[in-house]
Amino acid sequence: MPDRFNSDRSSTTPQIPRPSVLSATANGNDGKHLVIGKAVTIAGKISGCDRLVVEGHVDVTLKEVKFIEVTQSGVFKGDSAVENASIAGTYEGTLKVSGHLEIARTGLVKGNVNYKTIAVASGGQVLGTIESDAN
Q1: Cβ-proximal residues to 134 (8 Å cutoff; 6+ apart), any chain
Q2: Euclidean distance between CA atoms 117 and 57, whole angstroms
Q3: How many angstroms separate the CA atoms of 98 and 78, rounded?
């Protein structure tokens, strides 16, 4: 009969993963990242992070954010001026991208869009005003 009550079981106890709802990290190599999890809704201003990942819902104005990623489950409403952006969910508002904008097949961008370079996958949508700053 196996010893089910062995006191040394703590080393083999599986860790239960917790869903990421909101996490922010700042370390020397990775920079500053903010992840808005699927179950999170945020309104206001976000500034000073290198990378913003939106899995939930945000209604914000971005300042000093280098990269925004809106995942397939993410919804972003507001204004932003970023270096690069990747949209697989929904983005509504003004989006100014000084570098590359990528819209996935599940991506929907509504509003005023300004970009240097763009890639739109088959199925991706842009509704509104779109303007290139490529020189």
Answers
A1: 116, 117
A2: 26
A3: 17
Classify the C-alpha dihedral 135-77-44-52 as positive or negative. Answer: negative
Only one residue has tokens 């969910």, namely 89
pLDDT band at 114 (very low <50, low <70, confident <90, very high): very high
For every residue of 23-70, which 3-state class applies, written as one string? EEEEECCCEEEEEECCCCEEEEEEECCCEEEECCEEEEEEECCCEEEE
Tokens of 122: 């088959």
Which phi and psi (to 5°) does residue 89 adopt? -110, -135
Closest by CA position to 52, among listed 80, 15, 29:
80
54, 73 contact by CB (below 8 A) = no
Distance between CA 82 and CA 28 in Å, rounded? 21
pTM for this entry: 0.78
